[in-house]
Amino acid sequence: MKKILSIILAFALAFSFAGCNALDKIFDMSFGEDEQPTQPPIDTPEILEPIDPNWPVSVFGTEIEKSPEKVAAASPALAEYISDMGLFERLCAVPDYCGFEGAFTLPSIGSAALPDMEAIKAAAPEYILTFSQFEESLLIELQQMNITVIVIEAPQSLDDLRELYRSIALFFNGAVDGIPFGENYVAEYDSAIAAMAYSGEMKSAAFIRALDYMMITGDTMLQEFISAAGIRNAAESFTGYTFPEESWKEFDPEVLFLNPDLHLIDLETSDLYKKKTAVKGDKVFNVDIDALGICSRRSIHLMKDILATVYEDYSSGTPFKPAYPSMYQK
User: Fold this and answer.
1) In what order do the strands lie in the sheet with 127-130?
2) How are beta strands 214-215 and 204-210 bridged, if at all?
3) Looking at residue 323, what is its pLDDT?
4) Burial level of 246, CB count in 10 A (0-12/13-18/19+)?
5) Average pLDDT by consecutive 10-residue portion of the chain (330 residues)?
6) For position 263, what pLDDT does the model report?
7) CA distance readout (Å), 27 to 19, 24, 38
8) Residue 320: CB atoms within 10 Å
9) Residue 255's closest CA among 229, 279, 228, 223?
10) What pLDDT score does 322 carry?
11) How high is the pLDDT of residue 104?
12) pTM for the whole structure
């Protein structure tokens, strides 16, 4: 009996020790002295840079990845349009023959036909905007300099010019900011044209580019500009910058405007012009017709002077002086 009790007691003690060791192991795994309870890791989302809704933007058939900071223009009119929009500080170079205020403060890169590659390299533009194509070999050289050349179609009408202004705004300001910027500028431009216009009875004038018959005709952007100003163009019924020789008898405008390289004496000694009313009446004036033809803000100021020359009651401009006294005036 004693042996049986001893055996039972031994089994009881063994079971007791085994149970304590098992509990200790469980306790050590979960809440040991050197360990703390752990929680599953929390996934932290990667912080991304904010997306700029303006870029990239597709304009002029090119995708622009970011805001252009250094741009060169290779066409005088294009440089002037950009400057008119208040974007002059984004130009790092201009072409030859720019006549707008401030253009002389920037380096010249020549033109698309005759580019100054050293000047382009020194200016280091990101983009060159041009109305005229560069030669293929020059394009390759410019690409090697990491310069993108963008050829833009020159405006042929005032509506084309408005669209060009909108595209310039997108190019410089992006897809979102560029839209209101462009629309606001077009509205300002249209207001300036409306404020320029003469509202009285129209007189006729002709704008002579070269003798004998080369002048501004009705198929040009400048014709729209002249008409919007309130002048009847004597050559508005014709095209191709030429007044037809067979219709010359009908040509008799009240005022003539000549390119600066033409002079009154050229007309007074010409069998075609010397008997015309404007020549005999000393109503011949020199004006930069190429500058007028850009139809820019500078063109609007120039047109105001033309209107003041044609109409005595127009007070928003300064009349031109005659080319010089006519031999018909005594």
Assistant:
1) 91-93, 71-73, 127-130, 148-151
2) antiparallel
3) 79
4) exposed
5) 52 50 49 57 67 96 96 98 98 96 96 96 98 96 97 98 98 98 98 98 97 97 98 98 97 96 91 95 94 97 98 97 70
6) 87
7) 12, 5, 15
8) 17
9) 279
10) 86
11) 95
12) 0.84
Closest CA to 160 of 74, 98, 220: 220
Contacts 24+ apart (CB under 8 A), 155-160: 155/221, 155/295, 156/221, 157/221, 157/224, 158/221, 158/224, 158/225, 158/228, 158/295, 160/221
Q: The dihedral of CA 191, 196, 200, 203: what is its sign?
A: negative
List C-alpha distances in Å: 34 to 29, 31, 329. Answer: 10, 8, 116
- The closest of 193, 89, 169, 75 to 129, measured between CA atoms, is 75
Report the distance separating Cα 275 and Cα 175, nearest Å.
Answer: 57
Strands 127-130, 91-93: parallel, antiparallel or unpaired by DSSP? unpaired
Domains, the chain, ordered by start: 57-195 (3.40.50.1980), 202-310 (3.40.50.1980)
